[in-house]
Amino acid sequence: MGYLRFLRLNWLFLLAGFLLTFTSSYGQTYFISLFAGEIKGEFGLSDGQWGGIYTIGTTLSAVVMIWAGVLTDNFRVRALAFGVMIGLAMACLAMAAVPNWVGLIFVIFALRFTGQGMLSQLGAVAMVRWFEAARGKALSISSMGFAIGQAFLPIIFVALFAVFHWRSLWVIAAVLVVITIPVLMLLLRQERTPQSMAKEAQIAGMHGRHWARAEVLKSGLFWLMIPLIVGPSAWGTALFFQQVHFTEVKGWELVAYVSLMPTYVLSAVIATFTSGWAIDRFGVSRVVPFQMLPFALSFAVLAYADTLFMAGVGLVIFGVGQGIQSTGASAFWPEYYGTRHIGAIKAVAAALMVFGSAIGPGVTGAFIDLGITFPEQMIPIAVYYVLAAGLATWGIVKYRPALGR
Question: What are the backbone angles phi and psi of residue 396, rounded to the nearest 5°?
Fold first, then answer.
């Protein structure tokens, strides 16, 4: 089935997935980092201190995600999304009123848990459950919410800095979240039955089994995939978290650098749809081994970029990696471990992803305080991506025969 026909037949559920991923933007690093200069200035924080606060808050959200992500196995998306989005709106209001750096830790926790954690988890798990044969297409379409948010929200909010105080912009973000809630509830009035509530719809993983989370944690394949899960989140988060510092080191205007984002997002969109098609056509095993390589190349290009044009080239390559990652990582878990416990399994993966996003800003911020600029850190990061690709490839080659298909 082609993308257009698939979209026409399933647009209600796909639009719901899109809104979930788009609304997660207000808890994503690329959005929060837009306020880095104002936050550091208001509370007198260095790059390392701001990165440390972000790491603590994000790590707390990763710990809570291990438990909270399991809820997606037992409750419908409609019920969970309502509560999570209310929580995200309240977190945005809390950021608008945060009085000191101590309170900032808890605000970061709330934004990251509800936005990056739970809404991203809901968007991915919903597509995995609602669609089987076209899982790759569903994930690629719903993940456009990430792409659209990343393409336009930074430009819009950076422009609004000229008119509004930074705290007022968080009030606007809260209002936008609240406005989205009734639209999502309307789309999901007749939500599809989750696969965990309909056994006949479940698809088994390796050895024809549905793996419980405890069994997955004992699987050698899971441990080989950890660098692939953590890496893009850690260093991709750092790329956006340190964009103010990055542009200062390179001597570029932040608004000019941010204006490159639509080009980056366009490449991510193309790669997302291409990888979604490839997963449905050839299987996730043939896609995942390659998804780290564009990240490695992009960081190498950005490290040596001396013009905005070359920065744009690096971001376009980075977008290719993001596009493949957005579908490949989500499709991998049900393929190898089955769908019956997918919420619990995905919760671990989501927690690792969130934990990775905590590591990146903290580590890079600490090195910046030591005098090692973020561009100087990019080549070692590129090497990490290459090593992660090698481990993932080894794991897939070793365990793919257990699929039996």
Answer: -70, -40
Q: The tokens of 253 are what?
A: 């205007």
d(C-alpha 227, C-alpha 355), whole Å:
12
Please give the backbone phi and psi of residue 255, each rounded to the nearest 5 degrees, phi first: -65, -35
309: nearest Cα among 263, 244, 268: 263
Give per-residue burial for 203-230: e unless 16+ CB within 10 Å, then b: bbbbeeebbebeebeebebbebbbbbbb
Positive or negative, the CA dihedral 49, 52, 58, 63 is negative
Outline where 242-341 has alpha helix (H). Answer: 243-250, 254-258, 261-282, 293-304, 308-337
Spatial CA neighbour of 50 closest among 59, 41, 61, 60: 41
Distance CA 145, CA 149 (A): 6
**pLDDT tens, position by position, for the chain (405 residues)?**
566 777 677 777 788 888 998 999 999 988 998 898 899 999 998 878 888 898 899 888 888 887 776 777 667 778 888 999 999 999 999 999 999 999 999 999 999 999 888 888 788 777 766 666 566 677 777 778 888 888 788 888 988 988 999 999 999 999 999 999 999 888 887 655 544 344 444 667 777 788 888 888 888 888 999 999 899 889 988 898 888 889 999 999 888 888 888 888 889 888 888 887 788 787 788 888 888 999 999 999 999 999 999 999 999 999 999 888 877 777 788 788 877 777 778 778 877 887 887 788 888 888 988 899 999 999 999 999 999 999 989 988 888 887 765
According to DSSP, residue 164 is labeled S
Burial (0-12, 13-18, 19+ Cβ within 10 Å), 200: exposed
- Rounded distance between C-alpha atoms, residue 258 and residue 149, angstroms: 13
CB 306 within 8 A of CB 255: no
CA separation, residue 119 to residues 65, 143, 278, 347 (Å): 11, 12, 26, 12
